[in-house]
Design goal:
The protein is α/β, with parallel strands linked by helices. It contains 14 helices and 27 strands.
Length: 527
């Protein structure tokens, strides 16, 4: 017994996915209802295994592993998330699919107005992470219609309709394309875009425009033959659903059909099978039906299944002979579970250490990125490495203490996260540990020194051999819940921002202290 497409289940997604055949799905779309997205990034850095967000990410890792199992070699996955959780999700997907199979990150910018209207949530867009099962995945180009301003270029017309003019030359030097044609030779430093035969054929087809005043021929680009504009990875033309929209079902996490239609067109073809294990209001299912894809979907919510069912009946029940089945967990029980082992996946950076997965390979990327909690620093001076680390260690420690905790890794190039290493002898390594510890002890207010950690990691070459005297120095700084700001021995206060640290002074420092005091008084009122 197998699950056939156009099936909707009220069931746990793992129960469904583990009953699907391996390599039977063409596209998987994941938009799980993460209950506390704003805390996902924090759970990555604190490492609290009892944290519900951490457990949630472990569950997501199992879903992603099942998605990888059921996808065909040509299949793709799209994972939609808010920016705060995208780092954690990408960390998981890089391990499950392989970093080499990350295709791109689509930014759906759903809010076009002033930032103040979305300041409370802090986000104006979703990130859609695109991964493939192999290098042979489907990736169709997507075009959008020309907007009003773009259509204004089509100012001329002939019997075939409006057209715009395009240059027939390019600013390149290609001697074989610098010939004379119709009495015209490209200007110095330019060449024809086409060979002589193509130019003659374009002229014969009436696609060359040459006015009486300017003899330089130009190409006619007809409006009715224009595919539109390729959308790329920044989508700004699909707004969030308004309350008055006919499409709106009042389901809290509903996404616009336009987003799902683009994703399905980009990653699949007609007749192929789409899987949505968190279908919610059924937008993926409706998009699949509209564009002749088959589908399998589920959700644990009875309300979600009812809304999806009603949308299908309302939109397709009277216009096409569309059949679909609706089942539940009991209907899945007779279907045998396909054997598959779940591997442990790191959902935070500490997991890499405990699992022995971090390996610093010279001239290779590390498997995570700079964020508010991680800083990379290259040491360019081969003779001043110890002083470079020690002299700035308290600034970085203070910036993390005044923020949310984190770590800095010296020996990783920050612009591209490539391992370059720090050259330290055995004596240098001992001096780094000793002097950094002394420097951190001067931070005010004092922090228990056992809460800091300085780790020195070996660097290997691509053959697994240790590179002599080359290492990555890591300083781990705890998160602090103190209401007071921290200062270096020189009296400076720093905070960590994404990809950098920032010195606080004047009004910025005053505001920071006020915020800390407000937090402290809030805790006293609400113990």
């Amino acid at each position: 017994m197998v699950i056939t497409p156009n099936a909707l289940f009220q069931a746990d997604c793992i129960d469904l996915m583990q009953r699907l055949d391996a390599e039977s799905i063409d596209l998987v779309y994941l938009d799980p209802p993460l209950s506390s997205r704003s805390n996902i990034r924090q759970s990555v850095s604190t490492g609290n295994e009892d944290d519900s967000d951490y457990q949630q990410l472990q569950f997501i890792s199992r879903v992603c592993q099942q998605a990888h199992r059921v996808l065909k070699p040509t299949g793709v996955l799209f994972f939609q998330a808010q920016p705060l959780s995208a780092f954690s999700i990408r960390l998981i997907l890089n391990q499950v699919f392989g970093e080499a199979h990350f295709r791109d990150e689509i930014v759906w910018k759903y809010h076009q107005g002033p930032h103040s209207r979305t300041r409370r949530s802090g986000t104006q867009h979703d990130a859609i992470l695109h991964y493939s099962k192999s290098n042979k995945s489907t990736d169709n180009a997507i075009f959008r219609a020309l907007n009003r301003d773009e259509r204004r270029r089509f100012t001329k017309s002939d019997t075939r309709g409006p057209f715009a003019l395009a240059d027939l030359t390019a600013s390149v030097v290609q001697p074989n394309l610098q010939f004379e044609w119709n009495g015209i030779t490209p200007a110095e430093g330019r060449s024809w875009r086409f060979g002589l035969g193509t130019l003659q054929q374009l002229e014969q087809d009436g696609r060359i425009y040459q006015s009486g005043k300017e003899r330089v021929p130009r190409l006619k680009v007809f409006l009715n033959e224009n595919e539109g504009v390729e959308v790329g990875t920044i989508w700004t033309d699909i707004p969030r659903l308004s309350p008055a929209s006919k499409e709106n079902t009042q389901y809290p996490t509903q996404k616009p059909l336009g987003v799902l239609e683009r994703l399905l067109y980009k990653g699949s073809n007609e007749g192929e099978v789409v899987l949505d294990p968190f279908c919610g209001s059924g937008t993926t299912v409706v998009a699949a039906e509209r564009h002749q894809r088959r589908w399998i979907a589920c959700d644990t919510s009875k309300e979600a299944i009812e809304i999806t069912t009603q949308r299908l009946i309302r939109e397709f029940g009277h216009t096409q002979p569309m059949k679909f089945s609706v089942g539940d967990a009991d209907s899945l029980s007779p279907i045998p579970v396909k054997r598959a082992e779940f591997k442990r996946v790191a959902v935070r950076i500490d997991d890499f250490v405990s699992m022995g997965q971090i390996e610093f390979i010279l001239d290779h990327e590390v498997p995570f990125e700079e964020t508010r909690h991680f800083e990379f620093k290259e040491i360019k001076s081969p003779t001043g490495a110890v002083s470079s680390i020690v002299n700035t260690s308290d600034e970085y420690a203070v910036s993390f203490l005044n923020s949310e905790g984190g770590r800095i890794l010296w020996g990783i190039r920050d612009r591209d996260r490539i391992v370059v290493g720090v050259r330290l002898s055995y004596q240098d390594r001992d001096k780094v540990r000793r002097d950094v510890s002394a420097k951190l002890n001067q931070i005010e207010p004092r922090v228990d020194p056992s809460r800091y950690r300085v780790e020195i990691h070996e660097v290997h070459d691509e053959h697994g051999q240790k590179v002599p005297d080359l290492c990555v120095v890591e300083m781990i700084v705890p998160a602090s819940h103190s209401a007071e700001p921290y200062y270096t021995s020189g009296g400076d206060a720093w905070v960590k921002v994404d990809g950098n640290k920032q010195k606080l002074k004047g009004i910025a420092l005053t505001d920071f202290i006020r915020q800390r005091l407000a937090r402290r008084s809030g805790r006293k009122r609400n113990p």
